[in-house]
């Protein structure tokens, strides 16, 4: 059935037009593409601001800020190299008109940057877990060495997953159908989805469960490990009011002594929880579709492919927002950076 009130004519058939996600000059297409363009710019600017801050502030030239810098680099690359071409892809109705070479470059950077972003989130979660549960063993020197190893492994694994199709593991471009997409070879689908998402998902969920257990154990042990003085036991029957006062003073003293560390650990656990939660919500629809569709030889409407893809891209926008919101040092550094510019 033809669309009403459409005055623009093209050489394509009506069946092809109905399959396009965005019809030319429609209000929906203009609004949607404007919002996506704003998301691209905001993602690039915010992550670039984090990188500039880390480079300019000397106190940030150490762990865990090297992990944050690695995450910001991957997210800047998503916004600068991947999302603009994806926007062009959407403008053309999800048809690729830029040739095979640029298709392969785009898909390779897409997989590389998104996989690196996901594994950087995992590395930050692991770093927070070890700093909370093993703060005596996890010294600054050990933390620096482990964080550097995690950064190298993150980019190495991401490179292996992204470059595999270039060496014959499936095809990314179809000239007849003008399609450019991640290789649909079933074996590569299983390898890439598990390496890029399901494995780090298991890691971050396990990490947060351990952080929750450690925090719960620490709070429980603090409540039960109160020492009552001997004099207090002897005089308990005769001076109940004094006993209450002594106990109250003892508990208050212990709580005050642990307040700073407990608050720091609580904020770190909350930050990791929100970071993981947003990561899961943004990427799980896309990776479920990426795993199921090639294996069952089925398909979903193009509009849902676009929604799932851009929802995953939006994770690169939320990552710096979440991390800096729970770090007062970044807030102060941003304030100083803007005040100097004035």
UniProtKB/TrEMBL annotation:
Q: Which family does it belong to?
A: Belongs to the G-protein coupled receptor 1 family.
Gene Ontology cellular component terms for the protein in this record: plasma membrane
Top-rank lineage group of the source organism: Eukaryota
Which positions, given as ranges, span the membrane? 27-55, 67-85, 105-126, 146-168, 188-209, 268-287, 307-326
Ranges where the G-protein coupled receptors family 1 profile domain occurs: 46-323
Gene Ontology process terms (BP): adenylate cyclase-activating adrenergic receptor signaling pathway; positive regulation of MAPK cascade
Where does this protein come from, organism-wise? Denticeps clupeoides (denticle herring)
GO MF terms on file? G protein-coupled serotonin receptor activity
Q: Which Pfam families match?
A: 7tm_1
Bilayer topology reads: Multi-pass membrane protein
Subcellular localization is given as: Cell membrane
Q: Which UniProt keywords apply?
A: Cell membrane, Disulfide bond, G-protein coupled receptor, Glycoprotein, Membrane, Receptor, Transducer, Transmembrane, Transmembrane helix
Protein's name according to its UniProt entry: G-protein coupled receptors family 1 profile domain-containing protein
InterPro entries assigned to the protein according to its UniProt record, in alphabetical order: 5HT_rcpt (IPR002231), GPCR_Rhodpsn (IPR000276), GPCR_Rhodpsn_7TM (IPR017452)
């Amino acid at each position: 059935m033809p669309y009403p009130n459409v005055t623009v004519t093209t050489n394509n058939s009506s069946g092809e037009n109905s399959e396009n996600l965005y019809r030319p000059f429609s209000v929906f297409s203009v609004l949607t593409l404007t919002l996506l363009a704003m998301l691209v710019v905001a993602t690039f600017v915010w992550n670039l601001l984090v990188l500039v801050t880390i480079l300019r502030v000397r106190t940030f030239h150490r762990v865990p800020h090297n992990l944050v810098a690695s995450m910001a680099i991957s997210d800047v690359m998503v916004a600068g190299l991947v999302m603009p071409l994806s926007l062009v892809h959407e403008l053309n109705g999800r048809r690729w008109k830029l040739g095979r070479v640029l298709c392969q470059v785009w898909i390779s950077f897409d997989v590389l940057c998104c996989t690196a972003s996901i594994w950087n989130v995992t590395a930050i979660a692991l770093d927070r877990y070890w700093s909370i549960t093993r703060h005596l063993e996890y010294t600054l020197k050990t933390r620096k060495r482990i964080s550097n190893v995690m950064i190298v492994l993150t980019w190495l694994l991401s490179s292996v997953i992204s470059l595999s199709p270039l060496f014959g593991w499936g095809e990314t471009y179809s000239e007849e159908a003008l399609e450019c997409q991640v290789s649909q070879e079933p074996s590569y689908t299983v390898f890439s989805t598990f390496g890029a998402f399901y494995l780090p998902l298991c890691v971050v969920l396990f990490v947060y469960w351990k952080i929750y257990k450690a925090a719960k154990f620490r709070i429980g042990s603090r409540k039960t490990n109160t020492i009552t003085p001997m004099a207090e036991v002897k005089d308990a029957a005769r001076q109940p009011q004094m006993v209450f006062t002594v106990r109250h003073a003892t508990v208050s003293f212990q709580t005050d002594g642990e307040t700073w560390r407990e608050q720091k650990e609580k904020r770190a656990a909350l930050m990791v929880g929100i970071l993981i939660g947003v990561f899961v919500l943004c990427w799980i629809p896309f990776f479920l579709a990426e795993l199921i569709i090639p294996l069952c030889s089925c398909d979903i409407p193009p509009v849902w492919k676009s929604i799932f893809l851009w929802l995953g891209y939006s994770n690169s926008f939320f990552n710096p927002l979440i991390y800096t919101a729970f770090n007062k040092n970044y807030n102060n550094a941003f304030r100083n950076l803007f005040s100097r510019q004035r």
